[in-house]
Each structure stands twice: as C-alpha cells, then as structure tokens.
Known about the structure:
Structural class: mainly alpha
Shape: elongated
Mean pLDDT: 84
Number of helices: 32
Low-confidence stretches: 124-132, 165-170, 298-310, 588-592, 643-668
Radius of gyration: 30 Å
Amino acid sequence: MGSADSKLNFRKAVIQLTTKTQPVEATDDAFWDQFWADTATSVQDVFALVPAAEIRAVREESPSNLATLCYKAVEKLVQGAESGCHSEKEKQIVLNCSRLLTRVLPYIFEDPDWRGFFWSTVPGAGRGGGEDDDANARPLAESLLLAIADLLFCPDFTVQSHRRTTVDSAEDIQSLDSCEYIWEAGVGFAHSPPPNYTHDTNRTELLKLLLTCFSEAMYLPPAPDSSSTNPWVQFFCSTENRHALPLFTSLLNTVCAYDPVGYGIPYNHLLFSDYREPLVEEAAQVLIVTLDHDSASSSSPTVDGTTTGTVMDDAEPPGPENLFVNYLSRIHREEDFQFILKGMARLLSNPLLQTYLPNSTKKVKFHQELLVLFWKLCDFNKKFLFFVLKSSDVLDILVPTLYFLNDARADQSRVGLMHIGVFILLLLSGERNFGVRLNKPYSVRVPMDIPVFTGTHADLLIVVFHKIITSGHQRLQPLFDCLLTIVVNVSPYLKSLSMVAANKLLHLLEAFSTTWFLFSAAQNHHLVFFLLEVFNNIIQYQFDGNSNLVYAIIRKRSVFHQLANLPTDLPTIHKALQRRRRVPEPLSRTGSQEGASMEGSRPAAPAEPGTLKTSLVATPGIDKLTEKSQVSEDGTLRSLEPESQQGSADDGPAPGESGQAWREQRQTSSVSTSGQWSPTSEWVLSWKSKLPLQTIMRLLQVLVPQVEKICIDKGLTDESEILRFLQHGTLVGLLPVPHPILIRKYQANSGTAMWFRTYMWGVIYLRNVDPPVWYDTNVKLFEIQRV
C-alpha cells in the first residue's frame, strides 16, 4: 500500500473515531486495527493527522472510545514485547502504537478527571481472560512501562541479535539477559555493538514514548514540598523493572560515548544525517527525568545491591528506592569516572569548537540537559565530585560553563541556563581543590565576548562574572550573591590575579558601594561584604603573588575610605536615594576599562522577540542555599551552623565576622505602610559597624606612604616600578591575625529540587518541537511566555 493511501486510511479511522457517538467494542478488531495494523505513518504524520481539537473532542464526547484506544494500543505493545517482534508487520504495529500513544497521552494528563485512568485496571484485561484474572491484573501504566522496557532490549528490533541462525526460535524475550545487550560500551560494559540506524531510530521512538509517560509531572502545579514523586518514574525505576540496570547503563553510556564530530571529516554532518544525535538527546532527557529525586529528603531503605557485580559500589549503605539514582550514586571505578567526565567535557565543549572552515563541525544543542546531568552526578555521587576535582580535568567543564554563562547573559529566554551554570560552579567552589585548580594558566583561546587578558582560569572566571554583573539583564540580579559567594570560596587559593581581573573586582566594589546602591535595597550591602571578604582572603593568605590586586586596591583607596565614612544620618540617606532616581543604569560601566574583546567573538545578544521561554520558580536565597563551614589548620571543614539555629539572626560575633552581617536582613530597617522598604539610620549602623575593613586599612596605612615616596623620589608615573616594589614587599607581622577561612558550601534543599524540576521540564518542553509533543497542551508546572 502506498504511503498516501496509508495516510488516507489512517485519517479515515481518526475521523470515524471522532464522529462515533456510540462506544466501539474493544473486540471490534476490524475497527481498531485501522490505527496500527495496515498503516505506515511516521510520527510527524500521526501528529498532523490527529489534531489536538479532535483528541479533546473524543475525550469529552465519547470518553469510552478514547479509553479503549489507549487500552488497545498498550495491549499491542505488550503483545509485541511478549512475542519479540519477529516480523516486519509486528515491528510496524509497535511503532505505530508508540507514536499514537505519544500523541494522545498529554491530552489524558491535562484533564484532572483522567489522571487516574492509567493507574486503574481494565476489566477483563487479565492475561487469560478468565474471571479470577481480574484480581491480579496490572494497572495499564505498569503494563505500558514494562512493555517499553522489554521492547528496548528486543533482538533485531532495538538491539543486535546474538543468534547466528535466522530460525524462528529466536531468543526468548522473557528469559533474555538484557545485561548482555547494553547499547554502548562504557560503565560496566566493554563491548560496543556496531552502529545500526534502524535500532537507533526505534530506540528513539520508544524513549520518546517513555518520556511522554513521565511528563505527567508537567500537568501538576509546582508543589511547595518537592517530595511528591512521579508515579511513572517511581514504578519504572523500581525492582519491578528487570531491565533497570542495563537500561540505566545503556542511557548513560550512549550519552557519554557520543562523539558528534565523528571521524573528523569536515562537513561530515552535512552529508550524512546523524541518526545517533536524536537518540543521545532522548537518552539524556530520559536520564535527567528518572534522576529527578530530592536528595535532601532521601534516607529510605531499599533493596540490597547484591546482584550488581563490581560496577556498583556495594560497600555503601543501601541508597534510595529509585534504582537509577541508586546505581548512579554507586558508580565508583576510576575508569568509569574518567569515561563519564571525558564524554561530558567533549559534548559541553562541542559548541565552542572553532575551526577555520565555517559550519564544518556539527554543533550539539543539548548542553542544558548535559549540565543538569552533570549536576546530578556531582550531587548524588560524592566520589565522582572528588574525582572531577582531583585533576585539572575540571577545567574542561569550567570553560564551557563560563562560555555558556557569558553567551546567555543578555538573553531573557536563557535565565534557567544562567542558574544551572552558576549552581554547578557554586557546588564545585565548596571544595578546596577547585580553587587550587583555577591557578592553571588559561591558554585555550575560545572566542568570548570579554576583554583580552593573560592569566589563569581564575582570571577568566572573574572577568566573565564581572561581565555578567555589569552587562547582563535585570533578571540576573538574584544571582549576584551566588556569583560573589563562588569568588569568596575560591579566593584563599588564588596565587596571582592578573591586572585585568584585579581591576574588575575593584570596579565591582566601586559600583556596589555607591550610597544609592547600598541604600536602595535591604540586601545590597551583602555584595560589599562578599567583596571585602575576597580581598581579605587574598591579602591574608596569598599576599606574595598578588601585587596586581594590592596595587589596584592602593589606586582605588578612596573607595575604602568612603565605605569607612559611610553616612548614616537620614537626610543624607534620602538624598542618596533621590540621586539614584536621576541616574538610570543599575551598574554604570564607568571606571572599568573594558578594553577590546577577544578576536572572533560575537557580542552576547538578547533573545529574538517572540522567543518562547518557560517560567521558573524562585530559587532559595544564598543563606538557604549554602551552609557555612570553617577550614581548620589541617584543611578539614567544620560546620559553623548547628541545626537548631540555621537561618536565625546573630547571637553575637562569630568567627569571620564579615559574613555575619548578611543575616540581619530587615530587623532594623523600617517597612512603611505601603509595604515599601526604606532604610533607617539604625539599619545602616547595624551593618556598617561590621564592615571588615581592618586588614585593608592596615595595608593602606603601611604601603601608601611607601608608594608615594617612590613616586616622589623617582618622579614616577610608571606602574612597573611600583609593581616591582610591591612584589618584593611584605606585610609579615604588620597585619591583623589571619581570620579563619570561611567556605559556604552548597546544601541540598527542597527549594532547589523544585527549581530543577521546573527548569528540566521547561527545557524538555521547548526542545521537543519535531514532533511538538506538549505544545499547546495545558501544562501547569510552568507558564509558557514570549520574550
């Protein structure tokens, strides 16, 4: 039958279904088979030939027919899984049913009355058709999920057959050990099957259906407690699914082994369509959804991992019941970590590849899914996190992350990407090794829209953060606390900042310490505290190599004097705020020598008008997001926050007074009747008295006269002589006793878990455009907005 006839017949069947007012019996195979048995329709055809309005009409007018359609389609998938899909016809039926369910499921999820449908058992659906079978019949959702899992390891359909003969006694699908059929070499599997276009496309279609099953989460509003588990994911990742381990491994290995550049032939991707990429994208999306698990609330006992051989670490106590999270958290072999890290770095760096031939290498677009996956790996598997930080390989993650942050900074539709990038750097910055690694010289010249500098990866990080703060869009302001916390966390380990980075830090201090900025919001002074803490850490712990920063501090000494003499009387406070209303632009760029941007870079562009974006829930404040720890002499961390008083106001001075003032949010400021916050003298005094200026003031007191003397003696206007003097200077014995190093480590909390859920599903919603699985359905987890 020709493709046109096939489409026509399929369309006729759809019209019959929408116009029938009487229920069609489930036994009427002649009617139901029209939907899958004799058609060869692509998934795009199914979306075109089954319009949304008609699905909704059937749902409202003849619900029993929609129920039967779903039930029959699931039944066909179950039969395919049981028989092993030997004939071409059976394979076609499975694919058609899979496409049809992918089309219809979102419309079932969007109607609360239908929500329980897949979790109910269908009368008479017992295996044998007898009466007593109903009692142990599975809910439809479970049958569907188990069938998809079986079909993903179906020889000659989705995996290579191991049988040499073509006899019909092909492998019995029920007794097949799917661990021998893992899709790709990597974690726990050494054999890489030969590439097979058909297997890859069949896997992709089934994974798309699986993702659609999981997407019920999109139709529930964001809940304050993120603990509500997704029943589809919960069942699929439980011991009920005998393929959980091989499927988890297949998905992870398929993503991490993917090399988009292929065999390095330029323009290769323009000649051959890459059938692997859609599979890798789908695998990455399914992985991050199955790993949607609130680590803050997980302490549930679970099955013991005795069957998992040596790939997973059995010494650990049993982890969460979600087996995907469990397996991920127990990977422990160095070579597995190396494989995962190399693969992630390769894919994240791919959009940065610059070649002399324009468009000659393939660019992957799923970096947001990869960043979420990297986050999950670090969050659920601490051994992986330590492995990443053990060598300078972490910089292969850092550089692309900074590239994405810098590139997205002006684009309203990519706020979510900005957050995930910053969260990852915050998580890494809680570990001493990250700060140490940043001292490696930065030589990879990825074209970025930032000033040219010669220096280390720390310089790169500071220059990019400065660019985000001074030239990003307004919606990024909640991230400023996070960005500066990262700089504070790494500052005690930075051996030598470049002049460019030193000037950027002082420019930020200048911008944040203007009176109108300090007085215009209750939290703004925190940013000054963070920056002072950075300077104090470097002066106390890394004075020797940091003459550039010391010189910049001396040049901008007036800023520190102004802070020390900050006015606290009401008339001056009000005058400062009046002045603000006349000066637009929140952070002026004056005073920062921008310098030329790197060659070959494109300026960060705002979103095209009309770009779709999804809304995000608010992220917790930095004090909820992090936990303060003090670094002891031997380098170990000691938490400074007993459970009881987390988030409480100060009881009195504690180690590292500089960080304390940030807790005093509104106690002493006044909120007027209109609900408008306004600063008071007491409020300004309450934190001004805690500004940690002693170290810097002492440094200025000692060095400024010496520097001025050199200038007078030698008639100098030349920086190099002064820098040479500062390089050999020492402040030993002249500075206050070094303060203990304070680190603010990321801590898991339900607020971030909910944020990740909305962000991840928003990305998946927007990235699935062909076919547009969820487009124009009534999602509740986020709003779809246009820029």
